[in-house]
TrEMBL record:
It comes from the Eukaryota. Belongs to the cytochrome P450 family. GO terms for molecular function: heme binding; iron ion binding; monooxygenase activity; oxidoreductase activity, acting on paired donors, with incorporation or reduction of molecular oxygen. It holds the Pfam family p450. The keyword Glycoprotein does not apply. Heme binds at C447. This is Cytochrome P450 4A24. Keywords: Heme, Iron, Membrane, Metal-binding, Monooxygenase, Oxidoreductase, Transmembrane, Transmembrane helix. The chain crosses the membrane at residues 6-24, 77-100. Its cofactor is heme.
Length: 499
């Protein structure tokens, strides 16, 4: 018996030693790989922290990337999240194109960029991969057909009428007002009405609404977890104060969604003909979609897609609209050109109609330049499932590659005077690589809701410039910060004059 235990113990020890040797060799190989001449290390490597000690947040890492590109003209940067988790940051369209054209999945493994979102958003279209992603993308595509999007324009008008009335009251007497939070409430209001036909009065209740607070905190905590690798294991995360807070908010959001889904399923079961009498919303399409085998989405799949749509559809669009309003104030000549076009298209009408949206050519250019200057999503990530050659370097399997969209949109190799706000750059003939401008990602995994988002932005901004002249607040200059979406460190303050 003793001999048997000795043999077992020896075998286990040998396996452990073999595993450790394998890890050490892989670690040495990665260190060598990520120090090749075509990959620029982010800075001095710490044997334990990797490069985490260089920056307190994602914003600082983005600035590191900017500086390295300026100094070395590099196209790839390596950053280590502690000593065991290397990332490749891609900063040039020719390199980004290789990754984006592939069908490589999002990184949802432990420690990956999308891992912190899993317990909130689930395995929806943003995060899922493989056959599941292909099936669900196919099933959800009809939800963004023009015939479905068209009636949403009236919802946009209704939502932003409330938004403008609130702004007018808040800015009376020439007062300055912070608009980012109000914009976020408006876009969430839009998403709830368009996706699940639910009017939660979020703009009236403001940040006091529990759904608004839950989504905001879930977004913040997810980002914080990425920069605290010691909170990567679930059992450690959910023992921590922020983990317990995350769990509380996720439960609220899931309970809210599940209640809406249950009620809609019952309504459709009791009266199927109702779908023929009214406009279909996103939830209707989710509940009635069937694949080639006649199988629909499960309740959990429906919930994951609703959570994903509500988050992606309101937070990123809020960033776009918020920075567009700031740019209108900052660049009055551009604002005047947009106003003249809106006045010509709408005439004396207040509401924007579906047919008007295609007429907003100047406004479209303005929105494009705003999303270049202030990319709504500053970065996206993929994980390699096969060896991939980037800039002459063979990137191994299971490597996280991050496309730095904000850096890409400001790369001096690609953009002439990138720090200059100039909408005409998108009207000029250009030989720019189409992958140099990717605010909605690109390739097979591009954003399925980009037309929905652009239409909402056009309605919001057209209604705003039609009613007000937007003025800057010289005492509050917005400072962009790169997080899950691009926000302002100190808010976005403006003043308004009624036209």
């Amino acid at each position: 018996m003793d001999l048997y235990l000795i043999i077992i113990g020896t075998l286990l020890a040998a396996i452990c030693i073999w595993k450790v040797i394998g890890m050490v060799n892989r670690y040495k190989g990665l260190i060598k790989l990520y120090n090749q001449k075509n990959i620029q290390p982010a800075g001095k490597f710490h044997p334990f922290w990797g490069h985490l000690h260089l920056g307190a947040d994602f914003d600082e890492f983005t600035n590191i990337c900017f500086k390295l590109i300026e100094q070395t003209k590099t196209r790839m940067v390596s950053i280590w999240m502690m000593f065991f988790f290397p990332l490749i940051l891609v900063c040039h369209p020719e390199t980004a194109k290789i990754v984006l054209k592939s069908s490589e999945p999002k990184s949802k493994r432990m420690g990956g960029a999308y891992f912190p979102l899993l317990d909130w958003l689930g395995d929806g279209l943003l995060i899922s991969d493989g056959k599941k992603w292909e099936r669900n993308r196919r099933l959800l595509t009809p939800a963004f057909h023009f015939d479905v999007l068209k009636p949403y324009v009236q919802i946009y008008n209704s939502v932003f009428s409330i938004f403008l009335d609130k702004l007018e009251k808040a800015t009376s007497g020439g007062k300055s007002v912070e608009i980012y939070e109000s914009v976020g409430l408006a876009t969430l209001d839009t998403m709830l009405r368009c996706s699940v036909s639910y009017d939660a009065k979020v703009q009236e209740q403001g940040s006091n609404h529990p759904y608004v607070d839950a989504v905001r905190r879930l977004s913040y905590i997810s980002q914080e977890r990425l920069l605290r690798p010691w909170l990567t294991p679930d059992f450690l995360f959910y023992l921590s104060p922020i983990g317990r807070e995350f769990s509380k908010h996720a439960k609220y959001v899931h309970d809210f969604d599940e209640k809406v889904i249950r009620e809609r399923r019952k309504s459709l079961a009791d009266n199927p003909s109702v779908l023929e009498k009214r406009h279909l919303d996103f939830l209707d399409i989710l509940l009635t979609a069937r694949d080639e085998q006649g199988t629909g989405l499960t309740d959990r799949e429906v919930r994951d897609e609703v959570d994903t749509f509500l988050f992606e559809g309101h937070d990123t669009t809020a960033s776009s609209i918020g920075w567009a309003i700031y740019a209108l104030a900052k660049y009055p000549e551009e604002q005047q050109k947009v106003y003249e076009e809106v006045k010509r298209v709408l005439g004396g009408r207040e509401n924007v109609e579906w047919s008007d949206i295609q007429e907003f050519t100047r406004l479209s250019l303005f929105i494009k330049e705003t999303m270049r200057m202030y990319s709504p999503v500053p970065a996206i990530a993929r994980v390699t499932t096969r060896e991939m050659e980037l800039e002459g370097v063979v990137i191994p399997v299971n490597t996280e590659v991050t496309i730095m969209i904000q850096v890409l949109h400001h790369n001096e190799e690609i953009w002439n005077k990138p720090e200059e706000f100039r909408t005409d750059r998108f009207a000029e003939e250009s030989k720019r690589d189409p992958y140099s401008y990717v605010p909605f990602s690109a390739g097979p995994r591009n954003c399925i809701g980009q037309h929905f988002a652009l239409n909402e932005q056009k309605v919001a901004l057209a209604r705003l410039v039609q009613r007000f002249r937007i003025l800057p607040d010289p005492n509050n200059v917005a400072v962009p910060t790169n997080a899950v979406v691009t926000r302002s460190k100190n808010g976005i303050y403006i003043k308004l004059e009624k036209r």
